[in-house]
Amino acid sequence: MNKKLFVLSGSSGVGKGTVLKGFLEKNPNFMLSISCTTRHPRPGEVDGVNYFFITKEEFKNCIENNKFLEWAEFAGNFYGTKKKYINQCLAEGKDIILEIDTQGALQVKKQMPEAILIFICPPSYEALENRLRGRHTEDEATIQKRLQQVKIELERAEKFDYKIVNDNLDDAIKNLEEVIKGEMQKC
Ligand code: ADP
Ligand code: 5GP
Question: Ligand 2 site: residues with CB under 6 angstroms?
Answer without folding.
Answer: 12, 16, 35, 39, 70, 72, 74, 79-81, 99-101, 103-104
